[in-house]
Amino acid sequence: MPGRNIMEGVVILHETIHELHTKKRNGIIFKIDFEKAYDKVKWSFLQQTLRMKGFSPKWCRWVHNMVTGGSVGIKVNDDVGPYFQTKRGLRQGDPMSPILFNIVADMLALLINRAKADGQIGGVIPHLVDDGLSILQYADDTIIFLDHDPEQAKNLKLLLCAFELLSGLKINFHKSEIFCYGAAKEMEHYYTIIFGCNSGAYPFRYLGIPMHHRQLLNSEWRQVEDHFEQKLSCWKAKYLSYGGRLVMLNSVLSSLPMFMMSFFEIPKGVLKNLDHFRSRFLRQGSLDKHKYRLARWDILCRPKDRGGLGILDLHLQNKCLLAKWLVNLLNTDGTWQSLLRNKYLRSKSLTQVSAKPNDSHFWRGLMHIKEEVIANGSFVIKDGANTRFWDDTWIGDKPLKNRYPNLYNIARDRHITVSKVMSSRPLNISFRRSLVDNNLREWLRLVAQVSNVVLVDGMDHFKWLLTKSGLFTVRSMYLNAIDTHPPFQHRKIWRWKLPLKIKIFLWFIQRGVILTKDNLAKKNWKGSRNVIFRGAYWIRFWSQLQRDEQAKDALVVMSKKLEIIALEISNGGWKHFFRLS
User: Fold this and answer.
1) What pTM was estimated for this model as a whole?
2) pLDDT confidence tier of residue 18, bands split at 50, 70 and 90
3) d(Cα 317, Cα 138) in Å, to the nearest integer?
4) Which regions form coiled coils (predicted)?
């Protein structure tokens, strides 16, 4: 859906679990498991739902003709039995099926909201979310929130059974899980009897993300590491060139943990292990061989025009993905934004808060990158309530504390907001001592600079300075953070029409790290220093060469030419050697 993100529900659930557990508030979380969701949908219920939502009769007929008429045959011992007509269900693989299923599943949310309006059930954390939180849905992943009340639990069970009869969907109560908090924890066994489900254990997964009321331990990240290592071991990398492994590394391996990285700040130990797997895969091609490392990993992660191979830096990418949440929190409104503002900001702005020991794992990750994000943007002032007068960039191209450092050093409140400063004239700022000489002149310039600022109704808008449009992109922040190295002198090689493995070989030559005899000696290589080729054939070759003086002279001339060519390459003579421009 436009303007929606699959991760929004993850944020809401994570923060709700953290709030219920840390503040010991009463509440129940019910994680529902649907049995073969697509195969159970009643066609009659789908038609009624479409008509109720305002779809035209023609559209309803189209949908009916599309979902009906299917036939199924059962295969037993390689023999396919007679085909029979289906009477319900949506077709797997049909691009319309997810949309139609969402329309059907949305009726469960409608029933729960009506029951909540009638007082039959109640939501949780009403102090953070208006009217309380009752249900989260993404396709067939459904979470229901319930207040601590056995009667409400019975009402919910009846409602779910009624929804089963109406829609045809079957709820696996014995596979569903319940989590109780506060006083409800003492009656958890009673609630499991009401719903016929099991007590849940942490961490549990929602949309593939592990949920826990505390920060995930390194051992709980092991599934990501195992998945990463499994992908490396099953690929036949030994049949790939260095260029092929580089392409695979960037296109596949780096995207495996990306979903987790867009939500959690990944521990350094986990990132170190993931980088170890990637480095070993790129260098060795297989896990049962050992090869020398030709360049440091941080050099390989630089952009190609900055002297690297363009491998994705997972730590930096993690920060950039988290930064997107901060910018959306500053500029947009929604359920998850309201929850975070009511929980952590209260009457303060985002720029005025910092990380606390009892904050959630998600929020601490945002706080760790907050200053870096704000430093790369500026605030478009509306009411001035969310912008710091001294610390944020809101007038000019840099913060006022950098433009007027003397005034900033003697200001009593260095974190005062623009709205409070502009509440009186000339400015509502107090200093620890009287302004004289240079300080007085700075004060007059400051008053003159902000005198034309007029506050209006509305929330301050955060503008991203690294893009022309002013909109945040993960790519712009990543390139800005990694673009700190000098340009690569021979970056033109990446534009040559050569196989990628040849370009990488030339890149290694330019860096002087090819495993020549002198470089091998630096790595304590244990091998012969005077015999290049070994074996019976080459022993006969060298013996014949010693007897043939003319062949020996020709070999000496050829070796000198190769030495000149190698010297020319190492000195950067690319055009003369390759005849390319």
Assistant:
1) 0.83
2) very high
3) 26
4) none
